[in-house]
Amino acid sequence: MAKVVRTNTGAKEQAAQPVLSEAEVARRVEALLGRMSLEEKIGQLTQLGGASFMPKPNLEDVIRKGGAGSILWLNDTKQFNALQKIAVEESPSKTPLLFALDVIHGYRTIFPVPLAMASSWDPSVAERAQAVAAKEARAAGLHWTFGPMLDIARDARWGRIVEGAGEDPCLGAAMAAAQVRGFQGPFLGAPDHIVACAKHFAGYGAADGGRDYDPVYLPEGRLRNVYFPPFEAAVKAGVGTFMSAYMDLNDVPASGNRFLLSDVLRGEWGFKGFVVSDAFAVGNLVTQGFARDGGDAAFRALSAGVNMDMASNTYPQHLAGLVEDGTLKLADIDAAVRPILAIKVRMGLFEQPYIDESKLAQVVALPENQKEARLAAQRSMVLLKNEGRLLPLAKSLRKVAVIGPLADSKEATEGSWMVFGHTPAAVTVVEGIRAKLPGAKVEYAPGPAIRRDITWLFGDVMSEAKPVQTPEQAEAAFQTAVATARNADVIVMVLGENADMAGEAASRASFDMPGGQEELLKAVVALGKPVVLVLLNGRPLSIGWATENVPAILEAWEPGSEGGHAVADILFGDVNPGGKLPVTFPRKASHAPLYYARNLTHSPESSPMYRSRYWDGPTTPLYPFGFGLSYTTFSITNLKVAAPQVKVGSSVAVTADVTNTGLVVGDEVVQLYIHQKAGSDSRPMRELKGFERLTLKPGETKTVTFPLGPAELGYWSTNAGKWVQEAETFDIWVGADSLATLHADLEVIL
Ligand code: NOJ
């Protein structure tokens, strides 16, 4: 529906603006509403589940009656067209359906998991990835994805940390906006794009004890300063939909939470799209001990601001009755339906409800998709250690052993959220290394298999069955792995977590590498050969022993379908790693939550009186937020604040020079941190307020500039009960991670 314009070169280009004006969309929505019965309107508020584990009424019958506005968890282009035909030809108002699926980090071409993409500190990586994902998904007939996931996560026990951008609101907001732009394109309804959904609003990542779905208690200041910014950034980027979270936030379930969904989202941020509940969340308001019964749940969700009921069937069962008995007004239903219809109008579904069934094959075959996925994986990896410059390895190596249960696992390489299974085309680390060294002998041994102790809720749909080994089989696999390693000149260990060990319903109480992998690592290191550890994982792990004893460690996360190639590119020096950690690595799970933006205490870490907070070991992180190495070295110098004082409401520029002081081209992520020294509230000892990833040739220097103004210097004050920017002094640091030491002062004056 975009305007096609002719450029002066004569080429056809899509206009960056939608064809339909706001007024035209509104006019069409009102016309549609005028033709709909109450039942059909409630149908628009109903999303039906297509997955085997969801209550599944006869979809055709319901759609024929106008009883569904959207279907989730179907993935069959033919079926999309068949169901759409019923909707647009047989349902009373002929309103097309929105087909929705979790396209989280790729549809057919799989990109690194979102936590990995955040490690690139390069929002354009996430934007381009989601644009490819959108193009493939749209070609398959999907209109809507349940992403990006924008939950700040500071406790890595929570398995869903893998789906987000990590612990920091500034990095999180940048990744949020980039993903929305990637999915949706220049405007809602842009060709080859899909509607995005900012989820899970809000606070889900702060579950008590890191236990998925458990209640969350967050004071308003922390919500507004830390947990809301990525969501507000998504609204500013024009996100079409929001998803309300499952859990209780301060004793009010997020899916019945008027403060979140009405006061903040629509009232303060001016969100004009629609809110879908998380799956079954409307019905579960009863389970959570909030609503009395289904009718009460429907009433409380709708009146809090949930437009669409995902899969719980509570709206279709109860809303009509609530209107009939006067609990709800017809105007309430109309108000909930309007933004859903508006998105269908903007998406052009009334003009073009069907999808060309041959299109997906053409789009998926595009070689540039694989290229983007490989580039994203390369840019997402973080070099944690490289003692004695063991890396990069020489391509002249003749005998390499690749050891570990994840080394040839397509599942662990692609990572979580493969709703309809893993793609056979995914390249594992073993395959990537073999492709890189065609003349070498690359031997592989998995060692003992690893599996979850308690099986996974989504095991049947999203992951492969894991072998169960007897102790004897595990021991034999262990010995074979050590023997294979013994024969090699260099050993690449590929260890970490399987894809089903992080994600939804995948929290854990330990950050140890599961299944005795550290024992295998110790036995291999004891051989006295050069060992490189490649981690495939969806959360920080306790790698204290490896940090002490393994010379080179590459954090590859769950790098996607081109992941094995990207690992080999880095190990053998075709690519210089430049990613940085988007999360603090604690030494062990019992230290969680551990994050860099903590408040100072009466006994700060810098004081001579400081002792570790625990008497049984250090409390400092194993690797700090923002950390990552390169095959070259950098120096960051010449920090300047354009003026020593800045007025409240004005901006000042902070600059620093970054120089590549090594011998190869490389990337540095320059990071700006601030600390307000006194004020209405105590403020975190450091907060990230700007970053830039730069590529520098050996000897080259570039100057980075960061603006500091009210958006960076203000905060929501608990004491004042509002947003403030205060005339106080600030510490400013610029550097290569959250421990940066290059410092300046800034005074904010009235
Ligand atoms: C539940 C998850 O919490 C949510 O992230 C997802 O989008 C829905 N299920 C639909 O799959």
What is the compact description of this entry?
The chain is of the alpha/beta class and 750 residues long. It is built from 24 helices and 28 strands. Helix content is 31%, strand content 19%.
Structure explained in plain terms:
The chain has 750 residues and is an alpha/beta fold. The strands form eight sheets. The protein has a six-stranded mixed β-sheet with strand order 13-18-17-16-14-15, with helices on both faces. It has a five-stranded parallel β-sheet with strand order 6-5-4-3-12. The protein has a five-stranded mixed β-sheet with strand order 20-28-27-22-23. The longest helix is centred in the first third of the chain and has 18 residues, at 123-140. The two termini are 50 Å apart. 1-deoxynojirimycin is lined by residues 102, 146, 199, 278-279, 504. 1-deoxynojirimycin binds at residues 102, 146, 199, 278-279, 504.
